[in-house]
Amino acid sequence: MGLFDRISRVVRSNVNDMVSKAEDPEKILEQAVIDMQEDLIQLRQAVAQAIASQKRTQQQYNQAQTESNNWQQRAQLALQKGDEGLAREALTRKKTHTETATALKTQLDTQTSQVDTLKRSLIALEGKISEAKTKKDMLKARASAAKAQEQLQGMVNNMGTNTAMAAFERMEDKVLQLEARSQAAAELAGADLESQFRALESGDVDLELEAMKQQMLAGSAQPQQSLPGTTAPQSQTTQAPNDAAVDAELEDLKKQLDNL
């Protein structure tokens, strides 16, 4: 293969690739319909010219046929008058017009056939153009839908790295952090409140303990004042069980305070 052949092939391949990439289905379909309509206009003009030529030939044929009939009648009239020379001349003229009419009839038949063929071609082309227009609209709608789908898919694919989506993700993280802080603050507030109530409860316990001590002291002092004449051993014997009970109650209170 020569160098020029290789260069020619490379150039043609690049041109074909550029043309293929530049082809827009909607524009190509529109241009195809326009080309078909231009062909239809040319075909209509050709049919009109053929019909006009057919009509002229028909008129010429009719005129030649009429002249042939007229010279036939003249030849008969001349023969009736006894003028054979004039009759012969009339028949000669009649023969000429008859030959012309025969030739025109052959031409007329050919033109009639051509006109019929052109008319059928015109009707077929009009049908194809109508079908092409319908198909063009359908293909344009499909092409538009495919382009819209491609654009939508591209937007969906780019949403993962889109700045707007990244902003949403950052704001979501901040909201989670705020919720965590709020929950921690609520837990701390609840713990502090619990400790305050425990302090209050422990204060009440101290007051109750002090009141119980006062009652015990008052109870232990009353028997000594009301019974001055009693002996010491009896008093100690009576007080011992009371001290044991108090110690047991104090021990229970300590355990309850430790459990708190």
Give structural notes:
The protein has two domains: 3-143, Orthogonal Bundle (Helix Hairpins), CATH 1.10.287; 165-212. The chain starts with a helix and ends with a helix. It contains five helices and no strands. With 260 residues, it is mostly helical. It holds the Pfam family PspA_IM30.
Write the layout of secondary structure elements.
Blueprint: H1 3-22, H2 25-80, H3 84-158, H4 163-226, H5 232-259
Helix pairs in contact: 2-3, 4-5
Coiled coil: 54-81, 115-188
Biased composition (Low complexity): 230-241
Protein name: PspA/IM30 family protein
Strand content: under 5%
Largest sheet: none
What's the CATH first level of the largest domain?
Answer: Mainly Alpha
Helix content range of the residues, please? Answer: over 70%
The second-level CATH architecture of the largest domain is Orthogonal Bundle
Q: Give the termini distance in whole angstroms.
A: 104 Å
Count of folded domains = 2
Tally of alpha and pi helices: 5
Notable features of this structure?
single chain; 260 residues; mainly alpha; Helix Hairpins; 2 domains; 5 helices; 93% helix; coiled coil; PspA/IM30 family protein
What's this entry about, in short?
The chain is 93% helix and 0% strand. The chain has helices spanning 3-22, 25-80, 84-158, 163-226, 232-259.
